[in-house]
Amino acid sequence: MVTTYLRTSEQHSITMKYEYFKDWNNYLEFLLNALAMTYSAMTLKNHIDHHYIELGVVVMFLAWFNFLLQMMRFKHIGIFVVMFLHVFATVGKCLVVFSVVFVAFALSFHVLFRAPNNLKNLTLLSMNSSVITDCLPIINQLNTTISISLELQPFQSISLSLFKTLMMMLGEYEHTPTIIEPLIRQNAFTLHYPIITFFFYTTFVFLVPIILMNLLIGLAVGDIENVRRSAVQHLISQQVYWLADLEPKLTGIFRSRLYKSQWRKKTKKNTTTVFLDKTNVPEMTNEETMIQKYLKEAVTK
């Protein structure tokens, strides 16, 4: 079955030629096929490790996402898929621009909440007695993160600081263990820069979760009617493109079975009218013409 599917995909790419590479859905299918074949090869060789599990998760996600894209061809369901992709693209463009603000706050919090964790910092602190006094609760526990609260540990590294700031962007502030307890010295960690820390923390709360998130929501669903109208137009164009691509691939025998040289239409008088294809109908004789004329007059009466 997999071989048949791969042959069909290859024939599809050969038929479309350069048009095949203009649709990003084809790149997704190509990546999915490559990863699925790699996963199958690892399964046959019984090569099961962490990479095997991770690859399986990626293949499963891409398969279901590709199934979502295939639903776009259906009339009543496809419009919601198109709207989802449109909103996703809009939010993605905005996040690319506002990611600069996100990185700026993440790096600032990393510097403000970072605790000294090496002997070099201890040597520098020994030159200033006032700094030693402020840092005294934590000096005896350098080179460890046990004394630092769980909420402050992510800010000790840049990567986790980015992730922690992202979670704060969604509403997980946890200001009591992050700001209040270090400020009143209820734990070993001391808030060394209270004024600038309060300023950046308050600015982050108003700028990112309130202004930025509401802006993204407004861009996503504010102009929903235009999004729906453009989604309908895009859906129609996708269906026309799919049908135009499918029609030449049907074989002559299959098309000949579907083709009807005549079709019937019932009128209100329960009479049946037969419409013939003029290309396949031979010329009528005089006798047949007279009979047809007589039948028409009888129907009109």
UniProtKB/TrEMBL annotation:
GO terms for cellular component: transmembrane transporter complex. The chain crosses the membrane at residues 26-44, 50-69, 81-113, 198-221. Pfam families: Ion_trans. Keywords: ANK repeat, Glycoprotein, Ion channel, Ion transport, Membrane, Repeat, Transmembrane, Transmembrane helix, Transport. GO terms for molecular function: monoatomic ion channel activity. Its main location: membrane. It is found in: Membrane. This is Ion transport domain-containing protein. It comes from Schistosoma mekongi.
